[in-house]
Amino acid sequence: MASPDPQPSPSSQRPMKERLRRLWSYFKQYRAGWVLAIGSTVATGITEPAIPALLQPLLDRGFTQGELPIWMVPVTVIGLFMLRGLTQFAGQYALARIAGEGMLVLRRQLFDRLLTADLTLFSRQSASQLANTIVYEVQNGASQLVQAVITAARDGFTVIALLAYLFYLNWSLTMIVLVLVPCVAWILKVMTRHLYKVTRQSQVATDELAYVVEENVLAHRMVRLHGAQGAQAERFETLSRRLRDLALKATRSSAATTPLTQLVASVALSTMIGIALSQGQSADGRSITVGGFVAFIGAMLMLVAPTRRLADVVNPITRGMAALERGLDLMDSVESEVDNTSGAEQVPQRAQGHIELRDVSVRYRDDAAPALDGVSLRINAGETVALVGPSGSGKSTLVNLLPRFVQSSGGQILLDDVDAKSWPLAALRAQFALVSQDVTMLNDSVAANVALGASHIDRDRVLACLEDANLAAHVASLPQGMDTVLGHNATELSGGQRQRLAIARALYKDAPVLLLDEATSALDTESERLVQQAMRRVMVGRTTLVIAHRLSTIEHADRIVVMERGKITEQGTHTELLAAGGLYARLQNYAG
Ligand code: ADP
Ligand code: MG
């Protein structure tokens, strides 16, 4: 994997207050939800001491003196639990709703960033990393965080309510409980910090592990052919071990938290029982009734479970925050494409297709030779220009410059005599159709793939395009014709069929400039003949830039431009170049 890029200060390095405020901004919109959530969690917490409180009079008077009517007991108990059921349900629902709304906004923002991101993002991050962050991490983060907040809020209020009740019953005993709280809080604080760090590390390691699997799925044939299984297994093993160690590290700190807090609690608990017993035996009027004592012990024991849950709540909160923040970090690290949206009046709806490059250079990396080095080239409207040259000579870079998939680091590119940087991106890109070696099809119907980007699918036109692309017969044989859904990246189509589908897509777009980047390189001769035929149809009346590996396919171009190490070394017609006896002639000889 590429070395990690320096990202603009990741969330974990910023102050906690700022981080919380940032997260809060996503979850604060749904006001009514917060009112309901807080109201019902408070109510749930407050009704908790009602159970021991009911017990006390019952024990002190109810059974022995019969002051209370019998029917009141079940009515009160059932009523109490109905109320608690209602508030618990409402609280849980409201918080889930808050999480849902926040996640919706965050996800949409992330996906919008993906759609408008500067294209360098896609060489920095793999598809699986991006999918993982946008889909899974946001979801896990939000649901873990909210689940934890639900627990923390309900148990927090429960603890407060129970403590208040304990104070009311016997303040001196309750003081001991208060010694307990700071001890537990301190333990939690230390553990949280450690856990957060480990959690971040293990998320990064998980990503890397997934990346190894992805790579080995994609490259399974090459790995076997080269006998690289051993090295790959070792790579996987190393990462797996690191992940295991991190998981154990995280478990050590989270698993130690509960026993430690319980130990502190048990010491306090036994002291309290001792004091309660001595008070009960004293004859100074402060003695505790049987009901009071049972209620106190009951409420105290009820305190243990929510306190323990509160101690455990730290883990999902830190995990959830870390996951959500990785989404935010992604958003911060991504720059948007530079666009001149105000330039719409200066440019034509449909370009003539006249292209000019003036001394254009492209550098992908500062430490490498430029991919294009001072290239100047004029292409007339309607002309077919072929780019030829050894691999790595910059042909694809030149083609990718035109729809601004690649940014030039020097020089000027003009379409219809207007600087490409003055064109609004959308208007500029509307002028180009591209067929490359690695066309990607979307998991949608044939018709939707052909009419990609169109607001309305013109079925007659789709059919005509499929016919011109030599694909109509095959599509007709599919179960639902052009409405057949292709599946992920249309894997059931052959290479030639996919290429022809891409050509149909280019035909449908009907753009004035056509870019063909090794559109036939991966095909066998038979498929190539069909694709060639289709390509010749699509080239009619358009400015065409064609890169082809097989020189036979470009002999008929109006002009052939030969490139070498990012420079144009010769140009002319097929016959002229053969006569000149340069690189083109030599390449022809190899091919022959
Ligand atoms: P061609 O299409 O003629 O084979 P390219 O235009 O693809 O050549 O590549 C020209 C040079 O730029 C090569 O040295 C290649 O390694 C480099 N290059 C191409 N794309 C990238 C990229 N996204 N990041 C870094 N270097 C790149
Ligand atoms: Mg190329």
From TrEMBL:
<feature type="transmembrane region" description="Helical">
    <location>
        <begin position="285"/>
        <end position="305"/>
    </location>
</feature>
<dbReference type="Pfam" id="PF00005">
    <property type="entry name" value="ABC_tran"/>
</dbReference>
<keyword id="KW-0813">Transport</keyword>
<feature type="domain" description="ABC transmembrane type-1">
    <location>
        <begin position="35"/>
        <end position="319"/>
    </location>
</feature>
<dbReference type="InterPro" id="IPR039421">
    <property type="entry name" value="Type_1_exporter"/>
</dbReference>
<dbReference type="InterPro" id="IPR036640">
    <property type="entry name" value="ABC1_TM_sf"/>
</dbReference>
<dbReference type="InterPro" id="IPR011527">
    <property type="entry name" value="ABC1_TM_dom"/>
</dbReference>
<dbReference type="InterPro" id="IPR027417">
    <property type="entry name" value="P-loop_NTPase"/>
</dbReference>
<keyword id="KW-0812">Transmembrane</keyword>
<feature type="transmembrane region" description="Helical">
    <location>
        <begin position="173"/>
        <end position="191"/>
    </location>
</feature>
<dbReference type="InterPro" id="IPR003439">
    <property type="entry name" value="ABC_transporter-like_ATP-bd"/>
</dbReference>
<keyword id="KW-0445">Lipid transport</keyword>
<dbReference type="Pfam" id="PF00664">
    <property type="entry name" value="ABC_membrane"/>
</dbReference>
<protein>
    <submittedName>
        <fullName>Subfamily B ATP-binding cassette protein MsbA</fullName>
    </submittedName>
</protein>
<dbReference type="InterPro" id="IPR017871">
    <property type="entry name" value="ABC_transporter-like_CS"/>
</dbReference>
<keyword id="KW-1003">Cell membrane</keyword>
<dbReference type="GO" id="GO:0005524">
    <property type="term" value="F:ATP binding"/>
</dbReference>
<feature type="transmembrane region" description="Helical">
    <location>
        <begin position="69"/>
        <end position="87"/>
    </location>
</feature>
<keyword id="KW-1133">Transmembrane helix</keyword>
<feature type="domain" description="ABC transporter">
    <location>
        <begin position="355"/>
        <end position="590"/>
    </location>
</feature>
<feature type="transmembrane region" description="Helical">
    <location>
        <begin position="260"/>
        <end position="279"/>
    </location>
</feature>
<keyword id="KW-1278">Translocase</keyword>
<keyword id="KW-0547">Nucleotide-binding</keyword>
<dbReference type="InterPro" id="IPR011917">
    <property type="entry name" value="ABC_transpr_lipidA"/>
</dbReference>
<keyword id="KW-0472">Membrane</keyword>
<keyword id="KW-0067">ATP-binding</keyword>
<dbReference type="InterPro" id="IPR003593">
    <property type="entry name" value="AAA+_ATPase"/>
</dbReference>
